[in-house]
Design a protein that fits this description.
Organism: Peribacillus deserti
Order of helices and strands: H
Keywords: Dioxygenase, Oxidoreductase
GO molecular function, one term: dioxygenase activity
Largest sheet: none
Helix content: 25-40%
Protein name: Aromatic ring-opening dioxygenase LigB subunit
Length: about 60
């Protein structure tokens, strides 16, 4: 079995995506910049596969 070459836990949400940042683009700019850095580091690790997990809605 191959080993992991990169792993991370990152925030998510619409305002992080530049096209969805709304009327206050500066609000999530630091987080957005950090996400670009994570992407660069992930790219450097040359993964064969990327697995993305996100929590789904929770109904009670």
């Amino acid at each position: 079995m191959d080993q992991f070459v990169f792993a991370c836990i990152v925030p998510h949400g619409g305002e992080i995506i530049p096209e969805l940042m709304g009327s206050q683009p500066e609000r999530m700019q630091e987080t957005r910049n950090s996400m670009y850095k994570v992407g660069e580091e992930m790219s450097k690790s040359e993964p064969d596969c990327i697995v993305l997990l996100t929590p789904g809605p929770c109904w009670r």
